[in-house]
Model the fold of this input.
Amino acid sequence: NAGVMQNPRHLVRRRGQEARLRCSPMKGHSHVYWYRQLPEEGLKFMVYLQKENIIDESGMPKERFSAEFPKEGPSILRIQQVVRGDSAAYFCASSPRAGDNQPQHFGDGTRLSIL
Amino acid sequence: QKEVEQNSGPLSVPEGAIASLNCTYSDRGSQSFFWYRQYSGKSPELIMSIYSNGDKEDGRFTAQLNKASQYVSLLIRDSQPSDSATYLCAVPAFSGGYNKLIFGAGTRLAVHP
Done:
């Protein structure tokens, strides 16, 4: 499967725990975008990363949320001390280049549920 | 902050009809436009991209772009029940920069037999 791979597909956490969401971009893609979709709402940009660099994290809450895209391995979106309001679908998308004309291809997402 | 507006619907059309989905955007400088289809509980799937004024056709789908009026539309010919989904319009936040997408809220399409 050469598509964007996200895991886990479903993640259940209790309030106060940590959630780690992983994303492997399509082969040949070095640009990764994370989006969040709250129930019954649209997709909202969170963060844009290239290998080893965070380029734009303007959509990511400043506390409890962090992202990385190491030289080796998948991109990780980390949520510390989760709260009920973090329950959402988190989607990762990738593109081969950075231009605004580059279509993004999405992974299947991680559905995060907070108990 | 750029805005992308879509009618949330639902848009109900009979099988075989043409479904017309519309999207308006706030930034006159926008150059690239994308349509995604999202089935309930699934991920967005890219179905069309358009960059120039006019029409772009791909199978049963036609994207129409009018930069002067700042709208982009998606036509689905011979609509099928399997086309029932939410259609998302997306525009890059920056022109000429990286592709941070601003999404509309989506239009829910229901095709009934």
